[in-house]
Amino acid sequence: MDNFARLLKESWTLVEQERVRLSDHFYARLFLLDPELRKLFPVQMAGQGDRLLEAIIAAIHTVDDPEGFDEFLRALGRDHRKYHVEAAHFDTMGVALLDALRSTAGDGWNLEYDQAWRDAYAAIAEKMLAGAAADGDPPFWHAEVLTHERHGPDTAVFTCRALQYPLSWKAGQYVSVEVPRHHPRVWRTYSVANAPNDDNVLEFHVRTPAEAAGWVSGALVRRVKPGDLLRVAAPMGSMTLDRSSERDILCVAGGVGLAPVKALVEELAGYNRARWVHVFYGARTEADLYGLDRLRELVAAHPWLSVTAACSDDPDFDGEQGDISDVVARYGPWTTHDCYVSGSAAMVRSTLRVLAADDVPPQHTRYDTFGNL
Protein backbone atom coordinates (compact mmCIF):
# COMPACT_ATOMS: atom_id res chain seq x y z
CA MET A 1 0.00 0.00 0.00
CA ASP A 2 2.87 2.39 0.79
CA ASN A 3 4.37 2.08 -2.71
CA PHE A 4 0.90 2.27 -4.28
CA ALA A 5 0.09 5.47 -2.40
CA ARG A 6 3.51 6.91 -3.26
CA LEU A 7 2.99 6.32 -6.99
CA LEU A 8 -0.43 7.99 -6.93
CA LYS A 9 0.76 11.05 -5.02
CA GLU A 10 3.97 11.31 -7.02
CA SER A 11 2.14 11.14 -10.34
CA TRP A 12 -0.44 13.66 -9.17
CA THR A 13 2.32 16.28 -8.85
CA LEU A 14 2.70 16.11 -12.64
CA VAL A 15 -0.84 17.39 -13.21
CA GLU A 16 -1.93 19.31 -10.11
CA GLN A 17 -0.84 22.65 -11.57
CA GLU A 18 -2.82 21.93 -14.78
CA ARG A 19 -6.22 21.26 -13.26
CA VAL A 20 -8.20 23.22 -15.85
CA ARG A 21 -6.52 21.40 -18.73
CA LEU A 22 -6.99 18.06 -16.97
CA SER A 23 -10.70 18.56 -16.37
CA ASP A 24 -11.30 19.98 -19.87
CA HIS A 25 -9.62 16.95 -21.44
CA PHE A 26 -11.52 14.55 -19.17
CA TYR A 27 -14.95 15.93 -20.06
CA ALA A 28 -14.16 16.27 -23.76
CA ARG A 29 -13.05 12.64 -23.86
CA LEU A 30 -15.97 11.47 -21.70
CA PHE A 31 -18.63 13.05 -23.91
CA LEU A 32 -16.88 11.82 -27.05
CA LEU A 33 -16.93 8.25 -25.72
CA ASP A 34 -20.59 8.48 -24.66
CA PRO A 35 -22.51 11.58 -25.84
CA GLU A 36 -25.55 10.49 -23.79
CA LEU A 37 -23.60 11.26 -20.57
CA ARG A 38 -23.76 14.97 -21.39
CA LYS A 39 -27.42 14.93 -20.31
CA LEU A 40 -26.39 14.12 -16.73
CA PHE A 41 -24.42 17.35 -16.37
CA PRO A 42 -25.49 21.00 -16.07
CA VAL A 43 -25.85 23.12 -19.18
CA GLN A 44 -23.10 25.40 -17.87
CA MET A 45 -20.07 23.30 -16.92
CA ALA A 46 -18.15 26.07 -15.12
CA GLY A 47 -17.03 24.75 -11.74
CA GLN A 48 -17.93 21.13 -12.56
CA GLY A 49 -14.30 20.23 -13.19
CA ASP A 50 -13.31 21.51 -9.77
CA ARG A 51 -15.70 19.04 -8.15
CA LEU A 52 -14.21 16.14 -10.06
CA LEU A 53 -10.73 17.17 -9.00
CA GLU A 54 -11.76 17.70 -5.38
CA ALA A 55 -13.04 14.11 -5.28
CA ILE A 56 -9.81 12.81 -6.86
CA ILE A 57 -7.64 14.79 -4.44
CA ALA A 58 -9.67 13.62 -1.46
CA ALA A 59 -9.34 10.00 -2.59
CA ILE A 60 -5.58 10.37 -3.03
CA HIS A 61 -5.21 11.85 0.44
CA THR A 62 -7.02 8.90 2.02
CA VAL A 63 -5.48 6.08 -0.03
CA ASP A 64 -2.92 5.21 2.66
CA ASP A 65 -5.71 5.04 5.26
CA PRO A 66 -7.64 1.92 4.15
CA GLU A 67 -10.54 2.50 6.54
CA GLY A 68 -10.88 6.18 5.61
CA PHE A 69 -10.46 5.38 1.89
CA ASP A 70 -13.25 2.80 2.05
CA GLU A 71 -15.60 5.02 4.05
CA PHE A 72 -15.05 8.07 1.84
CA LEU A 73 -15.65 6.20 -1.41
CA ARG A 74 -18.73 4.34 -0.21
CA ALA A 75 -20.22 7.67 0.87
CA LEU A 76 -19.25 9.18 -2.50
CA GLY A 77 -20.99 6.31 -4.27
CA ARG A 78 -24.18 6.89 -2.30
CA ASP A 79 -23.95 10.60 -3.06
CA HIS A 80 -23.47 10.09 -6.81
CA ARG A 81 -26.83 8.34 -7.09
CA LYS A 82 -28.34 11.82 -7.34
CA TYR A 83 -26.59 12.26 -10.71
CA HIS A 84 -28.27 9.10 -12.07
CA VAL A 85 -24.85 7.49 -12.53
CA GLU A 86 -25.10 3.80 -13.50
CA ALA A 87 -22.56 1.00 -13.18
CA ALA A 88 -21.74 1.04 -16.92
CA HIS A 89 -20.78 4.72 -16.71
CA PHE A 90 -17.84 3.98 -14.40
CA ASP A 91 -15.93 2.13 -17.14
CA THR A 92 -16.31 5.07 -19.50
CA MET A 93 -15.24 7.54 -16.85
CA GLY A 94 -12.17 5.41 -16.07
CA VAL A 95 -11.05 5.45 -19.71
CA ALA A 96 -11.55 9.22 -19.91
CA LEU A 97 -9.70 9.86 -16.64
CA LEU A 98 -6.63 7.79 -17.60
CA ASP A 99 -6.51 9.44 -21.02
CA ALA A 100 -6.70 12.90 -19.42
CA LEU A 101 -3.95 12.08 -16.90
CA ARG A 102 -1.60 10.74 -19.59
CA SER A 103 -2.17 13.70 -21.89
CA THR A 104 -1.79 16.33 -19.15
CA ALA A 105 1.29 14.76 -17.51
CA GLY A 106 3.15 14.48 -20.80
CA ASP A 107 6.64 12.96 -20.87
CA GLY A 108 6.75 12.56 -17.09
CA TRP A 109 4.14 9.79 -17.19
CA ASN A 110 5.32 6.17 -17.06
CA LEU A 111 3.96 2.62 -16.98
CA GLU A 112 4.18 2.41 -13.18
CA TYR A 113 1.98 5.49 -12.81
CA ASP A 114 -0.42 4.15 -15.42
CA GLN A 115 -0.85 0.82 -13.64
CA ALA A 116 -1.21 2.50 -10.23
CA TRP A 117 -4.04 4.66 -11.53
CA ARG A 118 -5.72 1.70 -13.24
CA ASP A 119 -5.66 -0.21 -9.95
CA ALA A 120 -6.75 2.86 -7.98
CA TYR A 121 -9.67 3.59 -10.27
CA ALA A 122 -10.79 -0.05 -10.18
CA ALA A 123 -10.83 0.14 -6.37
CA ILE A 124 -12.59 3.50 -6.44
CA ALA A 125 -15.31 2.25 -8.80
CA GLU A 126 -15.80 -0.96 -6.82
CA LYS A 127 -16.21 0.82 -3.50
CA MET A 128 -18.46 3.56 -4.94
CA LEU A 129 -20.72 0.99 -6.56
CA ALA A 130 -20.85 -1.00 -3.32
CA GLY A 131 -21.83 2.13 -1.41
CA ALA A 132 -24.55 2.93 -3.92
CA ALA A 133 -25.92 -0.61 -3.89
CA ALA A 134 -26.06 -0.77 -0.09
CA ASP A 135 -28.05 2.45 0.28
CA GLY A 136 -31.76 1.88 0.82
CA ASP A 137 -32.62 5.58 0.71
CA PRO A 138 -33.85 7.37 -2.43
CA PRO A 139 -31.20 9.13 -4.59
CA PHE A 140 -32.53 12.44 -3.29
CA TRP A 141 -35.42 13.92 -1.35
CA HIS A 142 -37.87 16.54 -2.55
CA ALA A 143 -38.07 19.29 0.07
CA GLU A 144 -40.49 22.20 0.39
CA VAL A 145 -39.16 25.56 1.56
CA LEU A 146 -41.04 26.61 4.71
CA THR A 147 -39.35 29.86 5.82
CA HIS A 148 -36.80 32.22 4.29
CA GLU A 149 -35.09 35.14 6.04
CA ARG A 150 -32.52 37.52 4.56
CA HIS A 151 -29.67 38.83 6.69
CA GLY A 152 -28.09 41.64 4.72
CA PRO A 153 -27.54 41.53 0.96
CA ASP A 154 -25.71 38.20 0.73
CA THR A 155 -26.87 35.88 3.54
CA ALA A 156 -30.07 33.92 4.11
CA VAL A 157 -31.38 31.45 6.67
CA PHE A 158 -34.11 29.14 5.43
CA THR A 159 -35.85 25.94 6.44
CA CYS A 160 -37.35 23.17 4.34
CA ARG A 161 -39.19 19.93 5.01
CA ALA A 162 -38.23 16.66 3.36
CA LEU A 163 -41.29 15.16 1.67
CA GLN A 164 -42.36 11.54 1.18
CA TYR A 165 -39.46 9.83 2.97
CA PRO A 166 -37.79 10.49 6.34
CA LEU A 167 -34.31 11.99 6.04
CA SER A 168 -31.88 10.95 8.77
CA TRP A 169 -28.75 12.96 9.49
CA LYS A 170 -26.32 13.64 12.32
CA ALA A 171 -25.58 17.08 13.72
CA GLY A 172 -22.51 18.44 11.95
CA GLN A 173 -23.16 16.72 8.61
CA TYR A 174 -23.77 18.37 5.23
CA VAL A 175 -25.99 17.60 2.23
CA SER A 176 -26.03 18.48 -1.45
CA VAL A 177 -28.83 20.80 -2.57
CA GLU A 178 -30.26 21.42 -6.05
CA VAL A 179 -32.60 24.25 -7.05
CA PRO A 180 -34.24 22.56 -10.06
CA ARG A 181 -36.42 25.53 -10.97
CA HIS A 182 -33.43 27.84 -11.49
CA HIS A 183 -30.33 25.63 -11.95
CA PRO A 184 -31.22 22.04 -12.86
CA ARG A 185 -28.51 19.38 -12.40
CA VAL A 186 -26.28 21.77 -10.45
CA TRP A 187 -25.65 20.57 -6.88
CA ARG A 188 -23.81 22.34 -4.07
CA THR A 189 -23.09 21.22 -0.51
CA TYR A 190 -24.38 23.00 2.62
CA SER A 191 -24.17 22.08 6.28
CA VAL A 192 -27.43 21.36 8.06
CA ALA A 193 -27.83 24.02 10.76
CA ASN A 194 -30.10 22.16 13.17
CA ALA A 195 -30.07 18.91 15.08
CA PRO A 196 -32.18 15.98 13.79
CA ASN A 197 -35.90 16.19 14.51
CA ASP A 198 -39.03 14.16 13.92
CA ASP A 199 -40.55 16.74 11.54
CA ASN A 200 -38.04 16.23 8.69
CA VAL A 201 -37.27 19.97 8.84
CA LEU A 202 -33.77 21.10 7.89
CA GLU A 203 -32.28 24.56 8.40
CA PHE A 204 -29.59 26.05 6.15
CA HIS A 205 -27.38 29.13 6.35
CA VAL A 206 -26.22 30.31 2.91
CA ARG A 207 -23.98 33.14 1.81
CA THR A 208 -23.42 34.09 -1.81
CA PRO A 209 -19.74 33.82 -2.79
CA ALA A 210 -17.82 36.57 -4.51
CA GLU A 211 -17.18 34.44 -7.59
CA ALA A 212 -19.76 34.35 -10.35
CA ALA A 213 -20.00 30.53 -10.21
CA GLY A 214 -22.07 30.66 -7.02
CA TRP A 215 -25.33 30.20 -8.90
CA VAL A 216 -26.96 27.83 -6.44
CA SER A 217 -26.06 29.95 -3.41
CA GLY A 218 -27.26 33.06 -5.24
CA ALA A 219 -30.60 31.41 -6.00
CA LEU A 220 -30.99 30.17 -2.42
CA VAL A 221 -30.34 33.64 -1.03
CA ARG A 222 -32.13 35.87 -3.55
CA ARG A 223 -34.72 33.84 -5.49
CA VAL A 224 -36.02 30.97 -3.37
CA LYS A 225 -39.23 31.59 -1.40
CA PRO A 226 -41.60 29.59 0.82
CA GLY A 227 -43.43 26.96 -1.18
CA ASP A 228 -40.59 26.33 -3.63
CA LEU A 229 -39.32 22.78 -4.06
CA LEU A 230 -35.66 21.83 -3.68
CA ARG A 231 -33.86 18.53 -3.96
CA VAL A 232 -31.67 17.35 -1.08
CA ALA A 233 -29.24 14.43 -1.33
CA ALA A 234 -27.97 11.99 1.29
CA PRO A 235 -26.07 13.43 4.29
CA MET A 236 -22.29 13.16 4.37
CA GLY A 237 -19.45 14.31 6.58
CA SER A 238 -17.78 13.25 9.84
CA MET A 239 -17.76 16.49 11.85
CA THR A 240 -20.07 14.79 14.34
CA LEU A 241 -20.13 14.41 18.11
CA ASP A 242 -18.30 11.62 19.90
CA ARG A 243 -20.84 10.73 22.56
CA SER A 244 -18.41 8.38 24.26
CA SER A 245 -15.99 11.23 25.00
CA GLU A 246 -15.91 12.95 28.38
CA ARG A 247 -13.71 15.82 27.19
CA ASP A 248 -14.98 19.38 27.16
CA ILE A 249 -15.77 20.86 23.74
CA LEU A 250 -14.44 23.81 21.74
CA CYS A 251 -16.42 24.99 18.70
CA VAL A 252 -15.03 27.70 16.40
CA ALA A 253 -17.28 29.17 13.70
CA GLY A 254 -16.64 31.84 11.10
CA GLY A 255 -19.53 33.41 9.15
CA VAL A 256 -22.01 30.82 7.86
CA GLY A 257 -19.65 28.21 9.29
CA LEU A 258 -21.95 28.67 12.26
CA ALA A 259 -24.41 26.21 10.67
CA PRO A 260 -22.84 22.88 11.75
CA VAL A 261 -21.71 24.35 15.09
CA LYS A 262 -25.27 25.41 15.89
CA ALA A 263 -26.47 21.90 15.02
CA LEU A 264 -23.86 20.37 17.34
CA VAL A 265 -24.89 22.64 20.21
CA GLU A 266 -28.57 21.84 19.68
CA GLU A 267 -27.83 18.11 19.79
CA LEU A 268 -25.79 18.57 22.97
CA ALA A 269 -28.72 20.44 24.49
CA GLY A 270 -30.70 17.22 24.34
CA TYR A 271 -28.42 15.16 26.55
CA ASN A 272 -25.32 16.99 27.83
CA ARG A 273 -24.96 17.62 31.56
CA ALA A 274 -21.26 17.19 32.32
CA ARG A 275 -19.20 18.67 29.45
CA TRP A 276 -18.38 22.38 29.20
CA VAL A 277 -18.95 23.72 25.68
CA HIS A 278 -17.15 26.87 24.50
CA VAL A 279 -18.33 28.44 21.22
CA PHE A 280 -16.25 31.11 19.49
CA TYR A 281 -18.13 32.89 16.70
CA GLY A 282 -16.38 35.37 14.42
CA ALA A 283 -17.24 37.62 11.50
CA ARG A 284 -16.03 40.81 9.90
CA THR A 285 -18.68 43.13 11.39
CA GLU A 286 -21.42 42.89 14.00
CA ALA A 287 -24.03 42.86 11.23
CA ASP A 288 -22.45 39.65 9.93
CA LEU A 289 -23.02 37.89 13.29
CA TYR A 290 -26.52 36.97 12.14
CA GLY A 291 -26.83 33.96 14.46
CA LEU A 292 -25.70 35.56 17.70
CA ASP A 293 -29.20 36.03 19.16
CA ARG A 294 -30.00 32.32 18.76
CA LEU A 295 -26.71 31.39 20.44
CA ARG A 296 -27.49 33.69 23.35
CA GLU A 297 -30.87 31.99 23.77
CA LEU A 298 -29.08 28.66 24.06
CA VAL A 299 -26.62 30.12 26.60
CA ALA A 300 -29.52 31.34 28.74
CA ALA A 301 -31.03 27.85 28.77
CA HIS A 302 -27.87 25.80 29.33
CA PRO A 303 -25.34 26.68 32.06
CA TRP A 304 -22.63 24.46 30.50
CA LEU A 305 -22.53 26.63 27.35
CA SER A 306 -20.53 29.82 26.77
CA VAL A 307 -20.34 31.96 23.60
CA THR A 308 -17.60 34.42 22.72
CA ALA A 309 -18.21 36.62 19.68
CA ALA A 310 -15.54 38.58 17.81
CA CYS A 311 -15.33 41.03 14.91
CA SER A 312 -12.23 41.50 12.78
CA ASP A 313 -13.22 44.83 11.20
CA ASP A 314 -15.69 46.61 13.49
CA PRO A 315 -14.04 48.78 16.16
CA ASP A 316 -17.46 49.71 17.58
CA PHE A 317 -18.36 46.10 18.37
CA ASP A 318 -18.79 45.60 22.12
CA GLY A 319 -16.97 42.29 22.23
CA GLU A 320 -13.70 40.67 21.24
CA GLN A 321 -11.69 42.29 18.45
CA GLY A 322 -9.59 40.48 15.87
CA ASP A 323 -9.64 37.34 13.78
CA ILE A 324 -11.46 34.54 15.53
CA SER A 325 -8.39 32.27 15.47
CA ASP A 326 -6.40 34.91 17.38
CA VAL A 327 -9.21 35.23 19.93
CA VAL A 328 -9.28 31.46 20.40
CA ALA A 329 -5.51 31.52 20.99
CA ARG A 330 -5.90 34.15 23.72
CA TYR A 331 -8.40 31.97 25.59
CA GLY A 332 -6.38 28.74 25.32
CA PRO A 333 -4.88 26.29 25.83
CA TRP A 334 -7.32 23.73 24.40
CA THR A 335 -5.18 20.63 24.76
CA THR A 336 -7.78 18.54 26.61
CA HIS A 337 -10.80 19.48 24.45
CA ASP A 338 -12.64 17.93 21.52
CA CYS A 339 -12.38 20.67 18.88
CA TYR A 340 -14.75 21.48 16.00
CA VAL A 341 -13.89 24.18 13.44
CA SER A 342 -16.07 25.45 10.59
CA GLY A 343 -15.66 28.39 8.22
CA SER A 344 -13.64 29.66 5.28
CA ALA A 345 -10.48 27.85 4.24
CA ALA A 346 -8.28 30.66 5.57
CA MET A 347 -10.11 30.75 8.92
CA VAL A 348 -9.91 26.97 9.33
CA ARG A 349 -6.20 26.91 8.46
CA SER A 350 -5.34 29.59 11.00
CA THR A 351 -7.45 27.95 13.73
CA LEU A 352 -5.89 24.53 13.11
CA ARG A 353 -2.47 26.14 13.54
CA VAL A 354 -3.58 27.52 16.92
CA LEU A 355 -4.81 24.10 18.02
CA ALA A 356 -1.60 22.44 16.82
CA ALA A 357 0.41 24.93 18.85
CA ASP A 358 -1.67 23.90 21.87
CA ASP A 359 -0.75 20.25 21.19
CA VAL A 360 -4.36 19.23 20.57
CA PRO A 361 -4.14 15.63 19.25
CA PRO A 362 -5.25 15.49 15.58
CA GLN A 363 -7.81 12.78 16.38
CA HIS A 364 -9.56 15.25 18.72
CA THR A 365 -10.05 17.84 15.96
CA ARG A 366 -12.74 17.81 13.28
CA TYR A 367 -13.37 20.56 10.76
CA ASP A 368 -15.56 21.65 7.89
CA THR A 369 -14.25 24.15 5.37
CA PHE A 370 -15.90 26.14 2.58
CA GLY A 371 -13.16 25.90 -0.05
CA ASN A 372 -9.86 24.08 -0.32
CA LEU A 373 -7.36 23.89 2.52
UniProtKB/TrEMBL annotation:
<dbReference type="Pfam" id="PF00175">
    <property type="entry name" value="NAD_binding_1"/>
</dbReference>
<comment type="similarity">
    <text>In the C-terminal section; belongs to the flavoprotein pyridine nucleotide cytochrome reductase family.</text>
</comment>
<dbReference type="Pfam" id="PF00970">
    <property type="entry name" value="FAD_binding_6"/>
</dbReference>
<keyword id="KW-0521">NADP</keyword>
<feature type="domain" description="Globin">
    <location>
        <begin position="1"/>
        <end position="133"/>
    </location>
</feature>
<dbReference type="InterPro" id="IPR012292">
    <property type="entry name" value="Globin/Proto"/>
</dbReference>
<dbReference type="GO" id="GO:0020037">
    <property type="term" value="F:heme binding"/>
</dbReference>
<keyword id="KW-0561">Oxygen transport</keyword>
<dbReference type="GO" id="GO:0008941">
    <property type="term" value="F:nitric oxide dioxygenase NAD(P)H activity"/>
</dbReference>
<dbReference type="InterPro" id="IPR050415">
    <property type="entry name" value="MRET"/>
</dbReference>
<dbReference type="InterPro" id="IPR000971">
    <property type="entry name" value="Globin"/>
</dbReference>
<dbReference type="InterPro" id="IPR039261">
    <property type="entry name" value="FNR_nucleotide-bd"/>
</dbReference>
<keyword id="KW-0349">Heme</keyword>
<keyword id="KW-0001">2Fe-2S</keyword>
<dbReference type="InterPro" id="IPR009050">
    <property type="entry name" value="Globin-like_sf"/>
</dbReference>
<dbReference type="InterPro" id="IPR008333">
    <property type="entry name" value="Cbr1-like_FAD-bd_dom"/>
</dbReference>
<dbReference type="Pfam" id="PF00042">
    <property type="entry name" value="Globin"/>
</dbReference>
<keyword id="KW-0411">Iron-sulfur</keyword>
<dbReference type="InterPro" id="IPR017938">
    <property type="entry name" value="Riboflavin_synthase-like_b-brl"/>
</dbReference>
<dbReference type="InterPro" id="IPR017927">
    <property type="entry name" value="FAD-bd_FR_type"/>
</dbReference>
<dbReference type="GO" id="GO:0005344">
    <property type="term" value="F:oxygen carrier activity"/>
</dbReference>
<keyword id="KW-0479">Metal-binding</keyword>
<keyword id="KW-0520">NAD</keyword>
<keyword id="KW-0813">Transport</keyword>
<comment type="similarity">
    <text>Belongs to the globin family.</text>
</comment>
<keyword id="KW-0408">Iron</keyword>
<dbReference type="GO" id="GO:0051537">
    <property type="term" value="F:2 iron, 2 sulfur cluster binding"/>
</dbReference>
<feature type="domain" description="FAD-binding FR-type">
    <location>
        <begin position="138"/>
        <end position="242"/>
    </location>
</feature>
<dbReference type="InterPro" id="IPR001433">
    <property type="entry name" value="OxRdtase_FAD/NAD-bd"/>
</dbReference>
<protein>
    <recommendedName>
        <fullName>nitric oxide dioxygenase</fullName>
        <ecNumber>1.14.12.17</ecNumber>
    </recommendedName>
</protein>
<dbReference type="GO" id="GO:0019825">
    <property type="term" value="F:oxygen binding"/>
</dbReference>
